[in-house]
Amino acid sequence: MDTTDDARTRIDTTVAHPARRYNYWLGGKDHFAADRASGDAIAAAMPGVKLMAVENRAFMGRAVRYLAEQGIRQFLDIGTGIPAPNNTHEIAQSVDPSSRVVYVDNDPIVLTHARALLTSAPGGANAYIDGDLRDPEAILAHPDLPATLDLSRPVALLLVAVLHFIREDEHPERIIETLTAALAPGSYLVASHATWEYLPAEVIAALTRNNTDGRFQARTAARFAELLAPFDLVEPGIESVAYWHADDVPGPRPSAEEVACFGAVARIR
Ligand SMILES: C[S@@+](CC[C@H](N)C(=O)[O-])C[C@H]1O[C@@H](n2cnc3c(N)ncnc32)[C@H](O)[C@@H]1O
What we know:
This protein is of the alpha/beta class. The protein has helices spanning 3-10, 18-25, 33-45, 49-69, 88-95, 108-112, 114-117, 136-141, 144-148, 172-181, 201-210, 221-227, 256-259, and strands spanning 74-78, 100-105, 125-130, 156-160, 188-194, 232-233, 239-240, 261-267. Strands 1, 2, 3, 4, 5, 6, 7 and 8 form an 8-stranded mixed sheet that branches. Helix 2 (18-25) packs across helix 3 (33-45). Residues 18-19, 22, 56-57, 60, 78-81, 105-107, 110, 132-134, 160-162, 165 line the site of S-adenosylmethionine (SAM).
């Protein structure tokens, strides 16, 4: 089966999709009217949301580079998003071209971009799995995973700006535990998470009205910390994505309140 053609038939351009809305906020070209309308409605209530997208993406790049420089050569990036500058494999393979990356996303539009994503540096390898974070067993059982990653060796699991699409009744702890239990000692988790912690009640009310399908689940730093509790946080622990290992990023820097997104890197025991 040509999965790309299959994916095209699954793309619904009449409802907003997180991957396309994020691409819109990042200044990309892969979005439709419904994504722009939803993105603009959220930005009207929360003007910092585009900054959040940009800073989150930059955090992901710094975290991948940090782990590549620690010697990590395998990456499992779940909630890949539409390709944008500094995709995981580009950064990892710029440190070591032999790095291997498996991408996973449940949005068919991301799948249509898979061929572009799959262009690996010579000596490295990239794969793309059409999978859902809410079904971690299926991701782990997919044949393309062991074909690309050696799970007996350390892997960096990336859950960057995707956990906030997992509702509490979908058991985020169980998902994280299932995935990390499959990884070798010395593996890492990179995670970021949007928050409404800093927002006034009227803004939260506007964002809640916009979250018509209930798919978005903001969390506090305390709740994010609970999700990461089984792991050893790399310094400085849970931090605004704008400030995690950002000493060398040229200023002026936005405030943590404007960016409203936490990030962390943790070592899996
Ligand atoms: C905000 S984008 C983040 C992209 C990238 N990780 C980054 O931080 O730049 C969120 C991505 O997660 C994907 N996503 C949302 N829910 C998902 C799920 N249950 N399983 C897999 N991917 C999911 C969306 O399709 C989208 O591509």
